[in-house]
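Example: TonB C-terminal domain-containing protein.
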Amino acid sequence: MSIIRLVLGTLLALTTYSSCEAAPAKKRQTAPAAKKPTNGELLANQLIRNSYQIGEDLGATCRRTKFAYLATVLDLNAGLLTSQKGEFETDQQYQERSAKLAGVMAGDSIAICEPLNDNPDIEFRYDTENQRFSGSFSASHNVWRDSKSLGSYKSRTRMGIPMTVKASVEWEYDVSLTIDDTIPGCLSTKYGSSSFSVPATLEKAPLIKYGGRIAYIARLAPPYVKTSETPGEPSLDNPYDVYTKTTTVYARLEAIAIVDNTGATVWKCEVGRLVPNQAPTPIGDPDRWVTVIDYPIEGYRLRLNGRVKAILNLDTNGMPQSCTVTGSSGSTVLDNATCKAWMKNAKFVPAGDSDGKPTAGQAEVVKLWP
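Written out as structure tokens, the predicted fold is:
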């Protein structure tokens, strides 16, 4: 209940400072009307309903959450969530109010759950040879959609041709995720698209794909919510008048997880964490680490060539600390020049320990000088 009181207190402060106009006179009621929950109360309840605590059963969380409801009440409170400094509000009061609001909205993580099967916004395919799923999703995508038919009406085209138009309204509930893409670990993000890999046996795979879910663990972030409306444009070739309202919720992604048809978590990835026990992975094209500009000047006179193989010792940031030649070209001059280029240009995603934390590692590199 504490979070409800905190949300309501924050929203009350928002309304107090952002609107100081006198309330219009009300007629006396002969009987008390049934009390309806305020927008602030609705928001507080949905923040709790869609919240996620570390260690909580994700299967139970996914059965409880309703993303469309959360998006709706965020939209109802959009004016308060984005209100500017009030006319009679000091800078200090505004800063305190804004900080308190940010703390409430980002207080607990939320869980956004989506089905894995027959989901056009999530790619999730099984590789039988390697016994693992390959998945991907866009940072901004649809989570839930609903529609309602409004019947039909008679109309005419601009040329005066009569037609019957079928009218409907669609509600789109989208999420826009901010994703840390600095470490391509268990979740690799590039150009707004994230990919991941989930190991699964042949026996377990169908239970994950059919009836399983992907859960996004995230924290709400400014601007929290935005809406857009698109009117229908029926034509003779497409006699459908579809009015679309899109509500987008903004959040910062913290982790993703896969749960099977029983609700058990079979895989989880914390954003920015490495794959446990992963080997160092090259960043960029290793062939570009050593090029013709690194060829020693003395090599032209001596016509040096050959194959250089070496082991790079890497620190926890994936940067080379030393280069040990394990296969010489036959020339110390060429070996040293090649190692110097690797030390300068090579960069790796660091190795991961059993907990997915960066650790020192080694990587083998090879260069052939023709």
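Confidence is low (pLDDT under 50) at residues 16-23.
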